[in-house]
Amino acid sequence: MKKISSFVMISIIFATSCKDKKEEMKAEIQPPIAKIVPNSLEKHGDIRIDNYFWLNQREDKEVTDYLNKENEYYEKMTAHTKELQDDLFKEMKARIKEDDTSVPYFYNGYYYITRFEKGKDYPIYARKKGSLDAKEEIMFDCNELAKGQAYFNLNGLSVSEDNKWVTFGVDLVSRRQYIIQIKNLETGEILPELIENTTGGTTWASDNKTFFYTKKDPKTLRSDMIYKHVLKTDVKQDELVYHEKDDTFYSFVYKEKSKKYIVIGSTSTLTSEYQFLEADNPNGKFRIFQKRTRGLEYSISHFGDSFYIVTNKDNATNFKLMKTIESSTAKENWVEVIPHREDVLLEGVDIFKDYLVVEERSNGLNRIQVRPWSGEGAYYLPFESETYTAYTTTNPDFDTNILRYAYQSMTTPSSVIDFNMKTKEKTVLKEQEVLGGKFDKNNYTEERIWATASDGTKVPISMVYRKGMKKDGSNPFLLYAYGSYGASMDPYFSTTRLSLLDRGFIYAIAHIRGGEDLGRKWYEDGKLLKKKNTFTDFIDCSKYVIAKKYTSSKHLYAEGGSAGGLLMGAIVNMAPELYNGVIAQVPFVDVVTTMLDDTIPLTTGEYDEWGNPNEKEYYDYMKSYSPYDNVVAQNYPNMYVSTGLHDSQVQYWEPAKWVAKLRVTKTDKNLLFLHTNMDAGHGGASGRFEALKEVAKEFSFLLDLENIKK
After folding, report:
1. Lower CB count within 10 Å: N or C terminus of the chain?
2. What are the backbone dihedrals phi and psi of residue 359, each rounded to the nearest 5 degrees, phi first?
């Protein structure tokens, strides 16, 4: 046996002593325990006792004191990771091109550009008349506008057709309730008119003095009213053009690419309805395109003398493309252009003078097809990666052969590409720069594997890791998913993610049911009374990567936000033994109580997603998986839960109540943190660098659990 030197022995004793002291210090730090105030909630003869219902009083000092105590507990318990957090922040920031500029796009005589300046958090919106060599006109410097604000978001820039006026929305609270203002781009004057409680966006009529906008219900935040405003008139005199009274629908307004029509849309999860009016007749009456029919979904695009309609009409589950002349828009007049296909989801179209561009999804991957109107030689853009994301971007002109699209994969930074549909030549206008001199895409491997769910369904998983990874079960592995609303989680590139990959992590996205990754049926099989497929798919993906020795339960971590936070809450109740740690961002975890409260934002509009618990069948099913209602006395993984005090989508009290209940119920001594951003909402911090600090908190949580110090 090799003799250990006294110096080494002393070092070991010192290190062990420091570790023991750190553990002792942690043990001395006690988490806040929320007071118990039993509140009885009864429905369908079933009584639920909610001990933490009192936490839903945002203005109550006792509530904010409790949230601040949770923040203080998190800060004390993670004090030893502060240096790591700072290093991660600096590292991630160093990869960002701070003086970055968007690819300019040309619209109505001007090139529009968004750019950032070094050291500044917020964008600058600018334009140049006629040529990129022309003098820059700064429309908005958000760094100036954000001064003195804890939160700032500018939204919905809309320029009048004479290029003189621009409307914009500002949110200073993070409740997504924007105040619309109007700026004269010739003089720089901002008019005194303030339109409150809106979505932020506007749609100009052709007269350059009238615009339409959407107001929200002040309590539920449902966008339900379309108003018309005329420049330099009293906002109180604005005319209500349309009121959506069905509280399961929300409304919006936009202008067609052709500029001929202004369109009001009303949609719910399962049903659509549109109205349209000539843009040069803002005082006219909107006409129904096709009146709402339960289960009929459609969207419209105007071109020439016709409308093109993407619809699920006639049981076209994966949607098809139809067409009708603009004078006869009811569904009986629609004729088929692209038929329904069982294995291909039609996601949308982009129309040009000589080409129809079709965005599809097949076998879980994006496809872009170019179809000349002449009927000659339709073709697909070639994408060679095993797993990638591609989509069309800003294409405001009809009369062009150039299609602009974006492409990225888990190892390939995002690119903006101009593609000549006639010559098939492509020009990469910009590839996302990864600064720091350390990134080389050839050092990483991306792959797609298929896990088998408990009912035999094959579920794709996209993953990325550094080359040389060994399948010996020792790799730290972060598995992310969302799985709701038919939202597809496409594989994408992330500069921040490199901080995990370069420290040995595998990162993966599980394309579980509830999204639309493999077509509309993939979504239908993960909602309402089939919602549990979302949770079991994720669990089965977790078991699969463990079985294949990509990782083990000691090194497997799960992450999800919002409805993906619901997923996190469900899996830790159902299979806590699979995970060493879980990150739940702004999690939707109190499903039954929220869906029974029609005063909460989003509730009524989501009955078709989750079900209406006023009906006993849905109530019982929701209650069987709702994370808050199913917390039990068992061991749970280490958990980091985040929320925003002003969250408009998932109210802060859901994660707060969940953590409070977990604290007094769980039987382990694992970490449980609740961090509340007291200035932000659903999207977190508003500045690009402040947002990185939130990511650094999450990454340091994972790395600390893996005992990775640097």
Report:
1. N
2. -100, 125
What mean pLDDT comes out for the span 278-283?
97
Per-residue pLDDT averaged across 371-398, rounded? Answer: 92
Select which of 517, 525, 590, 647 is catalytic. Answer: 647
Q: H or E element: which one contains 50?
A: strand 46-50
Predicted local confidence at residue 602, as pLDDT: 65
Beta strands in 295-452 (DSSP E): 298-303, 306-311, 320-325, 335-338, 344-351, 355-362, 365-372, 379-380, 388-392, 402-409, 415-420, 426-431, 444-452
**SS3 category, 237:** helix
Q: Of residues 499, 682, 686, 704, which has the active-site annotation?
A: 682
Say which residue the tokens 């493309």 belong to: 321
Instruction: Tell me what the mean pLDDT of segment 601-626 comes to.
Output: 90
d(CA 223, CA 599): 14
Selection from 125, 128, 126 nearest residue 154 by Cα: 125
> In angstroms, rounded to a whole number, what is the distance separating the alpha carbons of residues 187 and 167?
14
Reply yes or no on whether the pLDDT at 76 is more than 50: yes
pLDDT, tens digit, 9 for 90 and up, residues 82-93: 999 999 999 999
Q: Write b or e for each residue in 16-30: b if 16 or more Cβ atoms lie within 10 A of its Cβ, otherwise e.
A: eeeeeeeeeeeeeee
* Residue among 518, 681, 479 at smallest CA distance from 586: 681
Active site residue 647: yes
What average pLDDT does this structure show over 536-542? 98
Note if 562 is an active site residue. Answer: yes
Q: Are 124 and 134 in contact (CB under 8 A)?
A: no
Active-site option among 562, 642, 686, 700: 562
Dihedral of alpha carbons 249, 391, 492, 452, sign? positive
At 150 the pLDDT is: 81
Tell me whether residue 234 is one of the annotated catalytic residues: no
Residues 6+ apart with CB under 8 A from 377: none
Which of the four pLDDT bands, split at 50, 70 and 90, describes residue 386?
confident
Percent of the chain having pLDDT more than 70? 94
Q: Which helix (H) or strand (E) holds 561?
A: strand 556-561
Amino acid 633: pLDDT: 98
**Whole-angstrom Cα distance, residue 626 to residue 425?**
52
Residue 131, classified by CB atoms within 10 Å of its CB into exposed (0-12), middle (13-18) or buried (19+), is exposed
Separation between Cα atoms, residue 209 and residue 497, nearest integer Å: 46
d(CA 82, CA 701): 11
| Average predicted confidence (pLDDT) for the chain | 92
Contact indicator for 389, 492 with CB cutoff of 8 Å: yes
* Cα distance between residue 324 and residue 302, in whole Å: 10
Distance of alpha carbon 156 from its chain centroid, rounded? 17
The pLDDT assigned to 24 comes to 56
Identify the CA nearest to 519 among candidates 530, 511, 510, 528. Answer: 511
Torsion of CA 78, 82, 86, 89, to 10 degrees: 0
Note the maximum CA span of the chain: 94
